[in-house]
Design goal:
The protein is mostly beta strands and 227 residues long. The protein has a single domain, classed as OPCA outer membrane adhesin/invasin (Lipocalin, Beta Barrel). Strands 1-2-3-5-6-8-9-10-11-12 form a ten-stranded antiparallel beta barrel. The termini are far apart.
Length: 227
């Protein structure tokens, strides 16, 4: 996707976020969570394909929500999806982390269905080696639309959820997850959840101009608490 189209899509997303009629929290709240994904990583580099070892990869996130109408809520998330590959008794490492910064508005919350929309900036850092490549720099950044939704099951403490980050160039970056959760409300809301997550990244190494594609997928479980 060329730069003009990326700017155009970004303008449309920003316009939508600004024009929707958001709902507001009654008080200031903070929500923190941690997820653990049991996932594998498929890599395509210059017509070579590799499947790196399946590992448990952590994610940590925090949300700040408030009652000020004109200001968006904030979510910050860190993912570590580093792994390795053994080939002919030689280990090839892939170090990959992602920092997600999201500004969003809650556009629906009626007790049954809730939905957030916003704008995300993701910074990807890391490098990898393969049997055919000594080192490939994976550093890049992406702007993306953020969508998060939740559906409560009436009469129970269970809910379904779906979250998505869709890059302004969707082929270059997308991060989608969905699953089921259970919420206990007392002095604070305590959530547990299970689901499936898929992340796709495409890029070009700046030095060698080597094209690469990463597909990170697997099941995950998480816990979070809201104050």
């Amino acid at each position: 996707m060329n730069e003009y189209n990326q700017v155009k899509i970004g303008f449309l997303v920003a316009s939508f976020v600004c024009c929707v009629a958001p709902t507001f929290a009654d008080t200031l709240s903070v929500k923190v969570g941690v997820d653990a994904a049991y996932s594998d990583l498929d890599v395509d580099v210059a017509d070579h394909s590799y499947t790196y070892d399946t590992k448990i990869n952590p994610s940590y996130w925090i949300k700040f929500e408030h009652f000020i109408p004109t200001l968006p809520n904030i979510k910050v998330q860190f993912d570590d999806v580093s792994t390795s590959l053994e080939h002919n008794l030689v280990d090839h490492n892939l170090k990959l982390t992602q920092m997600h910064y999201t500004l969003y508005y809650e556009v629906l919350d009626n007790g049954l269905v809730s939905a957030d929309v916003g704008l995300n900036y993701t910074s990807v850092q890391g490098d990898m080696s393969t049997p055919q490549h000594a080192e490939i720099d994976l550093e890049q950044s992406q702007w993306a639309a953020y969508i998060s939704s939740e559906l409560a099951f009436p009469g129970t403490d269970f809910f379904a959820f779906a979250d998505a980050l869709v890059g302004f160039d969707p082929a270059a970056y997308h991060d989608i997850q969905a699953g089921l959760g259970w919420r206990v409300s007392a002095l604070a809301d305590f959530d547990t959840k299970i689901g499936y997550r898929y992340t796709g990244i495409e890029g070009e190494e700046s030095g060698t101009k080597t094209d690469y594609t990463l597909a990170h997928r697997g099941v995950f479980a998480g816990v979070s608490v809201s104050f």
